[in-house]
Amino acid sequence: MSAPIDPAAVVAEFIDAVAPYDPNPEADPVAVVGVRTAFGQDVFPMSDHVIRALCKALASYRDPDDRGTCNGCGSRRIDENLHCQDCGRLHGILGQVIVDHARRVAAEDHT
Ligand SMILES: [Zn+2]
User: How far apart are the CA of 108 and the centre of ligand 1, in A?
Assistant: First the structure.
């Protein structure tokens, strides 16, 4: 397990990291983000610059377990070996190489 994350502290750090580059620091906040967790709660007024940065950061996040969608059955449950947990299909370049190799070996067996 990783260390516990204090989401409000992370949001505060994010604002500290981004706000200095706000081209319009005197402008009124355009959004208010509230965070309430076991650690407590905080409310963060955000400028246009900061909320845009936050949205970009969220949009670019990808779950470490996200290995795309199975093109066999559409499942999103693809394991670390790029094996679809639902239909068993093998993905990725290596998966294709293994499938091709297996097919070649199978074909040679028949001749
Ligand atoms: Zn599948």
Answer: 27
